[in-house]
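Can you please make up a protein's amino acid sequence together with its fold in C-alpha coordinate form to help me picture the idea?
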Amino acid sequence: MLANAKKVALGLVLLLGSSVALAQGKVVVLDLQAAVLGTEKAQTRLEALEKDEDYVALRTRYQSLTSELQAFQEDAQKNGMTWSDEQKQAKQQEMRELREQYERTVQGLQGERQQVMQVIMQEMGEQTQSALAQLIEAEKIGLVLNSQSAFHASAEYDITDDLTEMLNKAN
Protein backbone atom coordinates (compact mmCIF):
# COMPACT_ATOMS: atom_id res chain seq x y z
CA MET A 1 0.00 0.00 0.00
CA LEU A 2 2.81 2.38 0.94
CA ALA A 3 4.66 1.45 -2.24
CA ASN A 4 1.61 2.35 -4.32
CA ALA A 5 1.29 5.70 -2.54
CA LYS A 6 4.95 6.43 -3.31
CA LYS A 7 4.40 5.55 -6.96
CA VAL A 8 1.36 7.84 -7.16
CA ALA A 9 3.26 10.66 -5.45
CA LEU A 10 6.21 10.20 -7.77
CA GLY A 11 3.86 10.22 -10.76
CA LEU A 12 2.27 13.47 -9.60
CA VAL A 13 5.68 15.08 -9.08
CA LEU A 14 6.75 14.03 -12.58
CA LEU A 15 3.46 15.22 -14.06
CA LEU A 16 3.66 18.59 -12.32
CA GLY A 17 7.33 18.93 -13.20
CA SER A 18 6.67 18.26 -16.86
CA SER A 19 3.77 20.75 -16.83
CA VAL A 20 6.08 23.42 -15.43
CA ALA A 21 8.71 22.61 -18.04
CA LEU A 22 6.16 22.82 -20.85
CA ALA A 23 4.79 26.09 -19.50
CA GLN A 24 8.23 27.62 -20.04
CA GLY A 25 8.15 27.00 -23.80
CA LYS A 26 7.05 24.69 -26.55
CA VAL A 27 9.06 21.69 -27.63
CA VAL A 28 9.47 21.42 -31.41
CA VAL A 29 11.45 19.46 -33.97
CA LEU A 30 13.38 20.86 -36.91
CA ASP A 31 15.18 19.39 -39.90
CA LEU A 32 17.59 22.25 -40.48
CA GLN A 33 19.02 20.89 -43.72
CA ALA A 34 15.56 20.32 -45.19
CA ALA A 35 14.50 23.83 -44.14
CA VAL A 36 17.48 25.46 -45.87
CA LEU A 37 17.50 23.21 -48.93
CA GLY A 38 13.76 23.70 -49.33
CA THR A 39 14.18 27.44 -49.89
CA GLU A 40 13.69 28.95 -53.32
CA LYS A 41 17.33 30.08 -53.33
CA ALA A 42 18.60 26.56 -52.64
CA GLN A 43 16.22 25.01 -55.16
CA THR A 44 17.49 27.41 -57.83
CA ARG A 45 21.09 26.39 -57.09
CA LEU A 46 20.24 22.68 -57.17
CA GLU A 47 18.37 23.13 -60.46
CA ALA A 48 21.45 24.89 -61.88
CA LEU A 49 23.53 21.87 -60.85
CA GLU A 50 21.10 19.55 -62.66
CA LYS A 51 21.65 21.62 -65.84
CA ASP A 52 25.44 21.86 -65.49
CA GLU A 53 26.99 20.06 -68.47
CA ASP A 54 29.58 18.20 -66.37
CA TYR A 55 26.86 16.99 -64.00
CA VAL A 56 24.61 16.04 -66.93
CA ALA A 57 27.50 14.07 -68.44
CA LEU A 58 28.05 12.25 -65.14
CA ARG A 59 24.34 11.47 -64.85
CA THR A 60 24.28 10.19 -68.44
CA ARG A 61 27.32 8.02 -67.69
CA TYR A 62 25.56 6.70 -64.58
CA GLN A 63 22.48 5.74 -66.61
CA SER A 64 24.63 4.09 -69.27
CA LEU A 65 26.60 2.08 -66.71
CA THR A 66 23.39 1.03 -64.98
CA SER A 67 22.06 -0.34 -68.27
CA GLU A 68 25.36 -2.05 -69.05
CA LEU A 69 25.47 -3.73 -65.64
CA GLN A 70 21.90 -4.89 -65.97
CA ALA A 71 22.52 -6.31 -69.45
CA PHE A 72 25.70 -7.97 -68.25
CA GLN A 73 23.88 -9.65 -65.36
CA GLU A 74 21.10 -10.85 -67.65
CA ASP A 75 23.69 -12.28 -70.05
CA ALA A 76 25.46 -14.05 -67.18
CA GLN A 77 22.18 -15.59 -66.01
CA LYS A 78 21.24 -16.77 -69.50
CA ASN A 79 24.60 -17.88 -70.82
CA GLY A 80 26.85 -18.25 -67.78
CA MET A 81 26.52 -22.02 -67.66
CA THR A 82 27.88 -22.33 -71.20
CA TRP A 83 30.98 -20.18 -70.64
CA SER A 84 34.38 -21.83 -70.39
CA ASP A 85 36.55 -21.14 -67.34
CA GLU A 86 38.55 -18.62 -69.35
CA GLN A 87 35.39 -16.85 -70.46
CA LYS A 88 34.08 -16.80 -66.88
CA GLN A 89 37.31 -15.19 -65.65
CA ALA A 90 37.24 -12.63 -68.46
CA LYS A 91 33.58 -11.84 -67.78
CA GLN A 92 34.22 -11.53 -64.03
CA GLN A 93 37.06 -9.10 -64.69
CA GLU A 94 34.86 -7.11 -67.07
CA MET A 95 32.09 -7.02 -64.45
CA ARG A 96 34.53 -5.81 -61.76
CA GLU A 97 35.70 -3.00 -64.03
CA LEU A 98 32.11 -1.98 -64.81
CA ARG A 99 31.24 -1.95 -61.11
CA GLU A 100 34.30 0.17 -60.31
CA GLN A 101 33.31 2.67 -63.00
CA TYR A 102 29.75 2.66 -61.69
CA GLU A 103 30.86 3.29 -58.09
CA ARG A 104 33.19 6.12 -59.16
CA THR A 105 30.39 7.70 -61.16
CA VAL A 106 27.93 7.44 -58.25
CA GLN A 107 30.53 8.95 -55.92
CA GLY A 108 31.08 11.76 -58.40
CA LEU A 109 27.35 12.54 -58.61
CA GLN A 110 26.95 12.42 -54.85
CA GLY A 111 30.07 14.50 -54.32
CA GLU A 112 28.94 17.24 -56.70
CA ARG A 113 25.51 17.43 -55.09
CA GLN A 114 26.97 17.33 -51.57
CA GLN A 115 29.38 20.13 -52.42
CA VAL A 116 26.59 22.38 -53.68
CA MET A 117 24.50 21.60 -50.61
CA GLN A 118 27.40 22.46 -48.28
CA VAL A 119 27.96 25.78 -50.04
CA ILE A 120 24.26 26.60 -49.70
CA MET A 121 24.25 25.69 -45.99
CA GLN A 122 27.33 27.86 -45.39
CA GLU A 123 26.04 30.82 -47.38
CA MET A 124 22.71 30.79 -45.59
CA GLY A 125 24.10 29.98 -42.13
CA GLU A 126 23.82 33.42 -40.50
CA GLN A 127 20.48 34.15 -42.12
CA THR A 128 19.18 30.77 -40.93
CA GLN A 129 20.34 31.37 -37.36
CA SER A 130 18.68 34.77 -37.34
CA ALA A 131 15.40 33.44 -38.75
CA LEU A 132 15.43 30.54 -36.29
CA ALA A 133 16.00 32.93 -33.36
CA GLN A 134 13.06 35.04 -34.52
CA LEU A 135 10.88 31.95 -34.84
CA ILE A 136 11.87 30.73 -31.37
CA GLU A 137 11.01 34.09 -29.86
CA ALA A 138 7.75 34.55 -31.76
CA GLU A 139 6.48 31.04 -31.02
CA LYS A 140 7.82 30.99 -27.43
CA ILE A 141 9.79 27.82 -28.12
CA GLY A 142 11.70 26.38 -25.18
CA LEU A 143 13.40 23.44 -26.88
CA VAL A 144 14.27 22.66 -30.50
CA LEU A 145 15.18 19.05 -31.27
CA ASN A 146 16.70 17.71 -34.44
CA SER A 147 13.80 15.95 -36.16
CA GLN A 148 16.06 13.01 -37.03
CA SER A 149 16.77 12.49 -33.32
CA ALA A 150 13.12 12.35 -32.34
CA PHE A 151 11.54 8.93 -32.22
CA HIS A 152 8.17 10.43 -33.08
CA ALA A 153 6.82 13.93 -33.58
CA SER A 154 3.42 14.91 -34.92
CA ALA A 155 3.34 17.43 -37.77
CA GLU A 156 2.23 20.24 -35.46
CA TYR A 157 5.56 19.98 -33.62
CA ASP A 158 7.64 20.31 -36.81
CA ILE A 159 8.80 23.87 -37.59
CA THR A 160 10.84 22.96 -40.68
CA ASP A 161 8.33 24.45 -43.14
CA ASP A 162 7.92 27.56 -40.96
CA LEU A 163 11.67 28.20 -41.07
CA THR A 164 11.78 27.62 -44.85
CA GLU A 165 8.96 30.13 -45.28
CA MET A 166 10.79 32.71 -43.17
CA LEU A 167 13.98 32.21 -45.16
CA ASN A 168 12.09 32.62 -48.44
CA LYS A 169 10.57 35.88 -47.21
CA ALA A 170 14.00 37.15 -46.19
CA ASN A 171 15.37 36.67 -49.72
Remarks:
- The chain has seven helices and two strands.
- Residues 85-123 form the longest helix (39 residues).
- The mean pLDDT is 87.
